[in-house]
Specification:
3 domains; 64% helix; mainly alpha; 26 helices
Length: 603
């Protein structure tokens, strides 16, 4: 008879009996744990608010209304230590002891800290002064768009911020020097643009004898005029602002201009981040952060090429609808040059553009209840980009509302070059930047009651911009884009985002030149050459960012198609949009999990 060895089995049984069974928590215990962790999240968010006077202003808080943020290089190290401390705290928390909503917050917050620690290596791999959003234009724009003046103390806070320009610019210049020591200098084309913008800030009164008033003084005087103050007090405050502009703002810009003129001599024409030390590793890191996926540069490049080919085929169908004879390139040229697709380059033409944009948003607003169960409370307005930054600013963008409702959301249209703002793209642009695009998503996120504040202000580019691009397609499904040329405009906008996948990876991974990137856009899109130039220059100074739009849109559409296929008649579009929107901005992998759970719950 064969012997059976039972000793190992007995050992396993004994070890198993010694293991402490995991305690099953009651709902009340989970709620208590969740409440405690949410209190921690709020405490950390309030600490960030306290450390950032600029964030305070964006939130409508006037505690440090005369101060700027800390722009010193030391702040990076402080932020790293803060992330390490937070991660240490989170590792002591069992996510299974939390309710479902708090478990998601835990997951997102922990990922943010881990990313911050990993990204520290690349803290000097960006261009703080660039033609898209550099501090030289960002700080004046902040004063103009964010710093309201509702009292004398608010006006004094504005003046204090003007007086602090020299210190802030010293910190910025020091950061630029550190980057150069690490081999990070902007390409040559950046310098003329930022120098031009910087010089524009210190033009006009009180910087020189001129009938023209400088941008910042004009803003200060306009805001001050709305206050019920004596003329004597207004003149006193205006004189103080003028003095701060001359004695503080001008020297700060003079120093920055001198530094940039000097650095310009050492700049090269090389466009991609492959030129940096560990440039390839940095770009892969950027793509992961921007897309919140594991897609490689090569995979993103191929997706782009395939999408460009598909959209070209759909455009050829529109050519047939409008009885156009010729090639797709001929059609592009027709759309680029025919006067019927452009407003005149005049004040009247610009007013007409803004009026039409408002009407498109208003028409879409009436249809929102057919598509959404949840609508934002915040209002939205349409504005032209201010003259001082319109030459280098993007084509259009959205500025979020104040969380306290004191400032509406804003859809900015750049009307500097009317030949770059065709009417056939206006409808899709209004949907993307306004309703149901960024305004719906961002305003709803800010207004959520049951999520921590840190999530209301989190920004995942692939999610946010993916939603914006998805929002260009959504109105077509309910009968908008009746004009085939407007539908061509929608496709042109999507094509533009598909080309971004090709060109961004081309420049930063395949070593394309600036000129090769511009040529690709010119050959494959109907956009003006000025659009192509701006876009390529954006790719160069914001590596990876522009890949987010199409990757994000594709993921949202993929998830919706999966839900429709699995749920059939049980699919509800309003519910799907709630699943997408009511957790605020989240990474695409988390969005996929959420939609999957929703599908299972519906089954």
């Amino acid at each position: 008879m064969k012997k059976i060895c039972v000793f190992p089995l007995l050992v396993l049984l004994l070890l198993g009996s010694c293991k402490e069974e995991k305690k099953v928590l009651t709902d009340a215990e989970m709620e208590a744990n969740s409440k405690s962790l949410n209190a921690y999240f709020e405490e950390q968010f309030q600490q960030e608010v306290k450390e950032s006077p600029m964030l305070q202003t964006r939130l409508g808080i006037k505690a440090d209304y005369g101060k700027w943020d800390d722009f010193s290089s030391e702040k990076y190290a402080e932020d790293l230590e803060q992330a390490k401390e937070r991660l240490k705290y989170l590792k002591e928390v069992d996510p299974e002891s939390l309710n479902e909503k708090t478990r998601l917050s835990y997951k997102l917050y922990r990922q943010q800290q881990e990313n911050a620690i990993e990204d520290y290596e690349y803290r000097f791999y960006d261009y703080p002064v660039n033609q898209m959003f550099g501090y030289h234009s960002q700080l004046p724009a902040f004063l103009i768009n964010m710093h309201s003046i509702d009292s004398v103390s608010d006006a004094e806070g504005y003046i204090s911020r003007l007086e602090a320009f020299p210190e802030v610019f010293e910190e910025i210049i020091e950061n630029l020097k550190i980057r150069e020591q690490n081999g990070v200098i902007p390409p040559k084309f950046v310098f003329d643009k930022v120098l031009d913008d910087s010089r524009n800030i210190i033009k006009g009164k009180p910087f020189m004898k001129s009938v023209e008033v400088s941008t910042l003084l004009e803003d200060f005087k306009t805001k001050l005029e709305a206050l019920e103050l004596s003329e004597e007090k207004k003149q006193e405050l205006t004189a103080q602002a003028g003095q701060a502009l001359v004695q503080n703002v001008k020297p700060a810009y003079d120093n920055l201009i001198a530094f940039l003129e000097n650095q310009q001599q050492r700049a090269t024409g090389e466009a991609g981040v492959w030129k940096f030390p560990k440039g390839d590793a940095f770009y892969n890191n950027r793509l992961q952060r921007i897309t919140t996926t594991a897609l490689t540069a090569e995979e993103i490049h191929e997706i782009g090429l395939n999408e460009v080919a598909r959209i070209h085929r759909e455009m050829e169908e529109i050519m047939k609808k409008v009885d156009f004879e010729g090639s797709l390139q001929d059609f592009f040229e027709f759309m680029r040059t025919d006067e019927q697709f452009y407003y005149e380059d005049s004040e009247e033409g610009r007013k007409k553009y803004l009026t039409d944009a408002k009407q498109i948003i208003d028409r879409m607003r009436q249809k929102l209840p057919d598509l959404f169960n949840t609508l934002p409370e915040a209002e939205i307005v349409v504005k032209a980009v201010e003259p001082f930054r319109e030459k280098s600013a993007g084509k259009a963008f959205y500025q979020q509302p104040a969380i306290d409702g004191s400032r509406p959301g804003t859809f900015y249209a750049n009307l500097y070059d009317m030949s770059a703002m065709p009417t056939y793209q206006l409808e899709a642009l209004a949907y993307h930047e306004g309703i149901p695009g960024h305004h719906m998503q961002i305003a709803i996120a800010q207004e959520l009651d049951e999520v921590p504040d840190f999530r209301k202000h989190s920004f995942y580019t692939a999610y946010v911009e993916g939603w914006g691009l998805y929002s260009e397609l959504l109105p077509k499904e309910i009968g908008f884009y009746k004009d085939p040329y407007a539908d061509f405009g929608r496709l042109a906008m999507e094509l533009w985002r598909a080309c971004r996948l090709v060109v961004d990876t081309g420049i930063h991974s395949k070593k394309w030149t600036r000129e090769e990137g511009i040529s690709y856009y010119k050959q494959n899109t109907p956009n003006a050459e000025s659009d192509a130039v701006k876009m390529v220059e954006r790719h160069i100074v914001m590596p990876g960012q522009a890949t987010a739009y199409k990757i994000g849109m594709n993921k949202i559409l993929e998830l919706r198609q999966t839900a429709e296929a699995e749920l059939g008649e049980n699919f509800d579009l309003g519910e799907f949009h709630d699943v997408v929107l009511l957790d605020g901005a989240i990474p695409l992998n988390v969005l996929e999990d959420n939609v999957g759970e929703w599908i299972e719950s519906k089954k």
